[in-house]
Every structure is written in structure tokens, then in C-alpha cells.
Amino acid sequence: MGENAVEQTLTQLRVLDDRPHARSTPSTAPRTLADLYRDHRQRMVRLAVLLVDDPATAEDVVQEAFAGLHRHWSSLRDEEAAVAYLRTAVVNGSRSVLRRRRTARDYVPPHQVNARSAESLAMLSAEHQAVVDALATLPPRQREVLVLRYYGGLSEAEIAEATGITRGTVKSTASRALDAVGRVMNNPGGS
Q1: What residues contact residue 81 under an 8 Å CB cut-off, 6+ apart?
Q2: How many domains does the chain have?
Q3: What PANTHER family does the database record attribute to this sequence (predicted)?
């Protein structure tokens, strides 16, 4: 299982998420914020869900990213820069959510569990669910790197830019994360 299952699952999610209109040929009219919202919102939400593991929180993170894009709209040079801005904003917003969760856990009894929605569970096969569950055990940076690489389809350089870490750190983090996911998946009991 391990690395191959992670790649297949996240790549399959990316393929399912790609929409024909999001990759359409550019028209003569300039793209608007509404066009970007329509074409990229769902993909950004899925990215955030993989990072924060909660659909409602992911929606909030993406809404904040689009609000930030609106505030900086006039200073962006093109659509690619806008999408890169959104991706970085979603990663940073997800990090903030995870930091707040970590702080909140200090005050919440450890036996409380965040349950995944029935919709998200029904959409995944058992093997895919095992991969998503294994991702949830990773430290935030490792999860970010794997999600951006295999779900986001980003290169090491793009991941480095989106996360604010070096390319070498991206590479070593991805390697450690894949090893950790493989160990979790090969030892589902967690002993």
C-alpha cells in the first residue's frame, strides 16, 4: 500500500475534482473574480478539507481566501497569480485553523473525537478512506506537502512557494510523510 496508495487516492480525487470549464481556453474578455470563484472554489474547498478534515471549516477557510483575493484583486498580474494567491491563502488559513485546534485541545478532554461527515465517508472506497485516515495522523506540514503534491498536483517549487519552505524541505518532508503513511496503513491497529 504505502506511497502508491497515497498517490493513487489523492490523484484520483484531483481527477474527479477537475472541471472542464476550469481549464477552458481563455476568451477575449478579462477574467473576473466571479469567474475564478466559479472555476476554483470547489477545488480549493477540497484542498482545505484534506488539510483541516472538516467541510464546514474548509468552506470558511476558502471564503476568507476569496475575500483576501478580492482585497488584493487590483495588484494581481494575471489569473495564475490569483490562483497561486488562493492556494497559499488556503494553506495559511488551514494552518491557522490547526493552530487554534491545537490550543483548544489543551482545554478539551482527549476522549472527544471529530467525526467525518457521512457524505465524505460514502464518497471513498475502504482503501481510499484508509489513506485519508492515515493522512489525518500526520503532522500538519507533512499533510500539507502530501496533499499539495498528490491532490494539488503541484511541483516541489510550487509547494515551496505555497508553504513558505525550501524545495529541499519539501522533498524531505514528502519522503518522511510517505513513510509515516505507509507505517500507519501497514499497522492499522496503531500498536
Answers
A1: none
A2: 1
A3: ECF RNA POLYMERASE SIGMA FACTOR SIGM, RNA POLYMERASE ECF-TYPE SIGMA FACTO
Cα separation, 55 vs 19, whole angstroms = 20
Q: Does residue 34 belong to any structural domain of this protein? A: yes
CATH for 9:
1.20.140.160
- pLDDT, one tens digit per residue, over 146-178 is 889 888 888 999 999 989 999 999 999 999 999
Would the pTM of this model clear 0.90, i.e. be above it? Answer: no
pLDDT of residue 124: 58
Q: Which long-range contacts (CB under 8 A, 24 or more apart) does 22-29 make?
A: 26/79
Domain that holds residue 83: 2-186
CA-CA distance, 134 to 60, in Å (whole number)?
24
Question: Which segments within the chain are labelled E, that is strand?
Answer: none
Q: How far is it, in rounded angstroms, from Cα 14 to Cα 77?
A: 26
